[in-house]
UniProtKB/TrEMBL annotation:
The chain crosses the membrane at residues 71-93, 113-130, 163-183, 225-244, 269-291. Residues 66-290 form the ABC transmembrane type-1 domain. Pfam families: BPD_transp_1. One of its GO terms (biological process) is transmembrane transport. Keywords: Cell membrane, Membrane, Transmembrane, Transmembrane helix, Transport. It is found in: Cell membrane. This is N-acetylglucosamine transport system permease protein. It comes from the Bacteria.
Amino acid sequence: MPGKRLFIAVFLIPPLLLYGIFVVSPYAQAFQIAGTNWSGLSPTYDFVGLDNFQRLLSDGYFWNALRHNGLLLVLLPVVTILLGLFFASMISVGGRADRVGVHGVRGAGFYRVVYFFPQVLSVAIVGVLWKEMYAPHTGMVNGFLRAVGLDGLAVAWLGDPRFSFWCVMAVMIWMNVGFYVVLFSAAMQSIPRDLYEAALLDGAGRLTTLVRLTVPLVWDTIQVAWVYLAIIAIDGFAIVQIITDGGPSSSSDVVGLRLYKTAFADGQFGYASAIGVAMFFLTLTVAAMFLRVTRRERVEL
């Protein structure tokens, strides 16, 4: 028994130490710095207590960014999961039943590759790609609109405060939906085909089968996807910074980008850490709330 404990300790202690140094320690330091007016470069600073958090309550830029994160939090998981479930169901069980039973549409393997393709691209590549596609004169979006005779709809998408945020949201949906198509497809493979054949014999349509049969049986996977997408929605820093940098006029700003600019552009690391602490608790709260709200009884096969 002592030898077994020593064996476990040898393999557990080093990774736990690394995790504590490089993950837990920075979080703890952020809490400490949030109570100071540190500029990020000066060796001296003063403790200001909760002043940074009080400042958050009246910071219009912060609340504007938080409102955008709230919209992402509501719309990004819902749209991405709905699209992912629809495409996954078509790929897995959307074909016509024949002698080999229920199966996906023809070319399902090819569609999986197409949907998953954005996942092999880095966020930087995706951001630069779509920034060029939204370009007012040379971009593919306006080029397509002009080609089909809709010249009046060709606008400066990223330069117009009415559209910039929604353009970024569309990109975030596009870059995430493929992963959840593959994830939901894998979950659907574990569902016995006999259930789909029985639903087909009972006259259930594709939508009814998806809602009444598939969704309850893959609910655990949907729940995990919801939490991950909620975390992505609360962050959203990288793609926003690359495509719009929060503009124009902060119309596409998010909290992560506001934190970055406060720290590295304004030199207010203490206040930026307070924003980070607020994001930390917001993320924990949202994750716990989603797990609580979406909890339901497991369906056993």
